[in-house]
Amino acid sequence: MPRERVADKRHRAEQVLAALAQGYPDAATELAFRTPFELLVATILSAQATDVSVNAATPALFAAYPDASALAKATAKQIEPFIRTIGLFRNKAKNIVAAAKQIVKLHGGDVPDDYDDLLDLPGVGRKTANVVASNAFGRPAIAVDTHVGRLARRLKFSSHQDPNKVEKDLESLFPQEHWVFLHHSLILHGRRVCHARNPGCDTCTLATLCPSAAASP
């Protein structure tokens, strides 16, 4: 199969974006939050867990510990019962308490809107920092989770497994003002249609734009 020209790939990316906008016009994070702090905690908890499981656990957690100052005074053991239904809950309890302590100590109790400061928080990698930067502070960012990475590879927009490299590949193809919508809509499409094991190519609105769908029997 001949290698796709960059100009052709960018044109296809425009078409994919238009199809996603039609299919998911209101795409947004499905994590429930009211403040940047709640979003930060929910995003840390969502690693290798479903948003549904996180949203079921966080109301009681936030009722008991509504802000960084309150959570910083808790121990991981006190937090564990609130998030026991979420995968890796012990390690996540340690991380969110440590992050709260650092937010109180270094940032006056407010989640920092500086990207490097976000990355410096315990339990925060690029995906979490991008989610918080984009959803809490309106910064252009592409958060690459398993869905975004899988769809980027199936659409042949990236050949990488490394989320950071996938992020760079997508940034090079899509206008910055659409980055936040892009990752939200790709996540929804991955959850609803383009599943990991059985992609629904026969009902997929992106099928005519997707080399993987064209190559499937």
Notes on the protein architecture:
The chain has helices at residues 6-23, 36-45, 51-64, 68-72, 76-83, 89-107, 115-119, 126-137, 146-154, 163-173, 179-192, 211-215. The protein has two domains: 6-28 and 142-215, Endonuclease Iii, domain 2 (Orthogonal Bundle), CATH 1.10.1670.10; 36-137, Hypothetical protein, domain 2 (Endonuclease III, domain 1), CATH 1.10.340. The longest helix is centred in the middle third of the chain and has 19 residues, at 89-107. The model has no long low-confidence stretch (mean pLDDT 95). Helix content is 60%, strand content 0%. It is mainly alpha-helical. The protein starts with 5 loop residues before the first helix and ends with a helix. The protein has twelve helices and no strands. It is elongated and about 60 Å long.
Keywords summarizing the entry:
60% helix; single chain; 0% strand; mainly alpha; Endonuclease III, domain 1; elongated; 217 residues; Endonuclease Iii, domain 2
Brief rundown of the structure:
This protein folds into 2 domains: 6-28 and 142-215, Helix-hairpin-Helix base-excision DNA repair enzymes (C-terminal) (Endonuclease Iii, domain 2, Orthogonal Bundle); 36-137, Hypothetical protein, domain 2 (Endonuclease III, domain 1), CATH 1.10.340. It is built from 12 helices and no strands.
